[in-house]
Amino acid sequence: MKKLIYLDNAATTRVAPEAVDAMMPYFTEYYGNPSAIYSFAGEAKRAIEEARRTLAAGIGAKPEEIYFTGGGSESDNWALKAAAEAYAAKGKHIITTKIEHHAILHTAEYLEKNGCEVTYLDVDENGLVSPGAVRAAIRPGTILISVMMANNEIGTVEPVREIGAIAKEHGILFHTDAVQTFGHMPIDVNEMNIDLLSASAHKLNGPKGVGLLYIRQGLKLRAFVHGGAQERQRRAGTHNTAGIVGFGKAAELAFHSMEQRAEYEMRLRDYLIGRILDEIPYVRLNGDRTKRLPGNASFCFRFIEGESLLILLDQNGICASSGSACTSGALEPSHVLLAIGLPHEIAHGSLRISLSFQTTKEEVDFAVDKIKEIVERLRNMSPLYEDALKNI
């Protein structure tokens, strides 16, 4: 088998060996149900609470404000649906943006069908939402603002601190989808005035199938899953002990080395972006040049189909994506790329490369060389490219 070059870390990450080692005893040795009252279950319960403390400390929260879920999508659903129900007497208006993850957008659409009104804010050509636009959208019945901390497709980091301050000033709940930033960028829920925050373990070298929702103490949100008293009666179901332990260990590692990882990824990202923009014509960088996730590089190549590029990269052992992992296989171009103003024919030529601290410069050079080769090959088969050359 050819060497695998994995450049899709925004979709998921390799589980850290330390996280795997931490998880293993809770499959075979300490397998008791943490909700049981006998002493054998005590070790599982202790490990869950230790992970809760680690995760809380990493974002300036209290342990009792951390609720474990099945992942980021569940956390997003819980935040929006519970807020809409809890504050229905105050109003039914929610503010979000056009570039949110589908876990937010589809939940907002569901709430619209059930009596809520949702304002979907525009973003600029780099994917940034204006705090002024957020302020202007607020009205007497506004109960929730939900703006992601950084976009999963184009990497743009949003002005969450400013938006949080606006929400607090108006007494409105503020939720942020921090799935792409948790463990990768500094977060302080108090300084940023965040009331609700979603995160997922598998984006920071933890296991799949476990996430969290931070709920600021004092918010009276309903239970999301009924049937048991777990998670302080707000999320029923037997705890995924091993997954939670793995989440805690992965987060501990990420918090400890965050600055070094980010610096390394940014240097490699900027090197990659520089090579692509300098060496391949008719290409644009998607997202803000500097206000972006450390490992994210998103491009659109004119006169080619992104899906063909991905297939040929895969044949060379390179894993990348055309945007969100949740929309792979869709025939329509990314809603994010359309929202930043790209026409369909350009949006269809998208490629997202997301690096990690484990990615090497040699891997990036190999990938760029193959991208150049494949783009040229695909363009030579394109009548649109041929017409463009004639018009130069």
Structure, explained:
- The protein is α/β, with parallel strands linked by helices.
- About 40% of the residues lie in helices and about 15% in strands.
- The protein has 14 helices and 12 strands.
- It has helices at about 15-25, 25-30, 40-55, 70-85, 100-115, 130-135, 160-170, 230-235, 240-280, 305-315, 335-340, 345, 360-380, 385-390, and strands at about 5, 65-70, 95, 115-120, 140-145, 175, 195-200, 210-215, 285, 295-300, 320, 350-355.
- The strands form 3 sheets. It has a 7-stranded mixed β-sheet, with helices on both faces.
- Helix 3 packs parallel to helix 9 (about 240-280) and helix 9 packs across helix 13 (about 360-380).
- The two termini are about 45 Å apart.
Strand percentage lies at 5-15%
The description of the largest β-sheet is: 7 strands, mixed
Report the span from N to C terminus. 43 Å
Helix segment tally? 14
The low-confidence parts are none
Indicate the percent of residues in helices: 40-55%
- Element-by-element helix/strand order: EHHHEHEHEHEHEEEHHEEHEHHEHH
Radius of gyration: 22 Å
Average pLDDT = 95
Question: Would you tell me the structural class of the helices and strands?
Answer: alpha/beta
Morphology call: globular
Order the strands across the largest sheet as they lie in space. 2-8-7-6-5-3-4
Total count of strands: 12
Secondary structure layout plus pairing:
Layout (H helix, E strand, L loop, with lengths): L4 E2 L10 H7 L1 H4 L13 H16 L8 E4 L2 H15 L6 E5 L4 H12 L3 E5 L9 H7 L4 E5 L13 H10 L3 E5 L18 E5 L10 E5 L14 H4 L7 H39 L3 E4 L9 E6 L4 H10 L2 E2 L15 H5 L4 H4 L2 E5 L6 H19 L3 H8 L2
Parallel strand pairs: 1-11, 3-4, 3-5, 5-6, 6-7
Antiparallel strand pairs: 2-8, 7-8, 9-10, 10-12
